[in-house]
């Protein structure tokens, strides 16, 4: 099973979601059965670590994002991952526009797994510190829901 989180530049929202979901998988004993990654639609930050504000907010909750490096979405991601989860509607539209016709991966908004099917994870980049806390709250809720979905699929495949 493979999960890819997608935002605009891969330095705030998607690396936070990657880190949070990794922790949920570890706590559930599933880290060795699910591959997790993140990427951005754009290439502005390729190779850079997550935003320092995202790393600080995540660290306050016990998440270490320091080893992550931004990368851009690749066409091969559509075949490699089972889930490509967008942080907002623009990211989802970009995924849908690039999706190959034969791709079987699930494309959708990440917050659908928190029971918020039409809600976007707001981009905290130009905001204050509270925005990063809000992102963490939202991705934690969605990570719990995604974990349940993934557990169910892994049990079906067993």
From TrEMBL:
Domain Phosphotyrosine protein phosphatase I: 1-149
PANTHER family in UniProt: LOW MOLECULAR WEIGHT PHOSPHOTYROSINE PROTEIN PHOSPHATASE, LOW MOLECULAR WEIGHT PROTEIN TYROSINE PHOSPHATASE
Family matches, as CDD domains: LMWPTP
UniProt name for this protein: protein-tyrosine-phosphatase
InterPro entries given in the database record: LMW_PTPase, Ptyr_pPase, Ptyr_pPase_sf, Tyr_phospatase_low_mol_wt
Pfam family, one: LMWPc
Organism in which the protein naturally occurs: Halomonas koreensis
E.C. designation(s): 3.1.3.48
One example GO MF annotation: protein tyrosine phosphatase activity
Alphabetically ordered keywords of this record: Hydrolase, Protein phosphatase
Similarity comment: family membership: Belongs to the low molecular weight phosphotyrosine protein phosphatase family.
């Amino acid at each position: 099973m493979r999960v890819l989180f997608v935002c605009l530049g891969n330095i705030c929202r998607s690396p936070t979601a990657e880190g949070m979901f990794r922790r949920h998988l570890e706590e559930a004993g599933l880290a060795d059965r699910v591959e997790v990654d993140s990427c951005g639609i754009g290439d502005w930050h390729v190779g850079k670590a997550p935003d320092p504000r995202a790393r600080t907010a995540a660290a306050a909750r016990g998440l270490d994002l320091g080893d992550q490096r931004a990368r851009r979405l690749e066409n091969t991601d559509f075949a490699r991952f089972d889930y490509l989860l967008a942080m907002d509607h623009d990211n989802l539209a970009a995924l849908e526009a690039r999706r190959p016709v034969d791709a079987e991966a699930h494309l959708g908004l990440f917050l659908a797994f928190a029971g918020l099917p039409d809600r976007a994870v707001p981009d905290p980049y130009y905001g204050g510190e509270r925005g990063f806390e809000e992102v963490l709250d939202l991705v934690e809720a969605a990570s719990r829901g995604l974990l349940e979905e993934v557990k169910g699929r892994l049990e079906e495949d067993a």
